[in-house]
Amino acid sequence: MNRKPYVREMPKSWWLGQRRYTIYMVRELTCVLIGAYVLVILVGLFRLSQGPAAYGAFLDALQGPLAIGFHLLAFALALFHTVTWFGLTPKAMPLRFGEKTVPGTAIIMAHYVVWFVVSAGLLLVARV
Amino acid sequence: MTGPVLELEVLRYRPETDQDPAFQSYTVPYNGDWVVLDALNHIKDNIDRTLSFRWSCHMAVCGSCGMMINGEPKLSCHTFLRDYYPGKVRVEPLTNFPIERDLVTVADDFMEKLASVKPYVIAKEDRPVNAGEHLQSPADLNSFKQYTMCINCMLCYAACPQMGLTPDFVGPAALALAHRYNLDTRDAGREERQEIAASNEGVWDCTFVGACSQVCPKAVDPAAAIQQTKIASTVDWYKTLLPPWGK
Predict the structure, then answer these.
(1) Which residue of A lies nearest to B230 if distances are taken between CA atoms?
(2) Is A4's Cβ below 8 Å from some Cβ in B?
(3) Of B98, B161, B231, the CB nearest to A92
(4) Which domain holds residue A120?
(5) Is there a domain that residue A6 lies in?
(6) Min CA distance, B3 vs chain A (Å)?
(7) Residue A8: inside a domain, yes or no?
(8) So what's the ipTM on this one?
(9) A11: Cβ contacts below 8 Å, ≥ 6 apart
(10) pTM
């Protein structure tokens, strides 16, 4: 028998049609803004090393609407990334004790608790 | 035809005559208790006997009747018409697989990938039959039971965009089964399976889209198995850097 299997091409827009793929792509793209945010921090550290005047100029530059807009967007995407990743943690690290399985919500909540404790600790150290 | 009806659009591909697949529309009687597979069988028996599709058990066990139903990978025996009526139902063969004919896909590549992860118990040593059962505790079983529920229906392969983008990817079901046997207390074959499972085409082609677990009709959660294999493989790698385990 002559076989002639037909191979369908994957359209470039595959991630636009379905919500789950779009959410995945947004989660992947969050890394771009988080990477840019890390660059801003590095520039800040570099300016700090150049002395108070350079650092002051850096802080002034962060007051502009563009910088504030960028930080708000980066913060929103970092939150999206964090929340979606925390939601997936029970899959990667299930906890089982014998026949008992720790519910996924407990693992997710533990991540939020650690996140808030670390954030509060950092704010305390920075005396904000 | 009297009474309510439902329209099915079915992707047809007859390799001896068709250059490309094309949709064909069928009108079937609407019955709220029917699943999509019943409608396809109605077409086959009463309207068009040339329509080809796979099915066997009609009870979500054999894993033969997976299809794209309105763009979503589903078992057609497990998908009720009432969830779509009065809308149309569009039926296509599973994506990420070549089409053999109509709704029948070519599964050879999947079968090879499945075999490559050695999805069976590789015993630590040969046990004579008179040694009796190889016992496991309920706790042992609990650690991998969900992964034993896989019926090889390939819905996860159709849902996974990485399968379409990187066709060499071993894929969710095979990697979930590798994990299942790795976790089995009677098994000693992890090292053999890791050659495939921990390779680039194994777990590292997975970018954790998670769609495989969302479409799985048996709650196997292959995405979980793959992430756990990634963590275990990473730990293996770190161990190679540390004496006295380092090789």
Answers:
(1) A92
(2) yes
(3) B231
(4) 19-126
(5) no
(6) 34
(7) no
(8) 0.87
(9) none
(10) 0.91
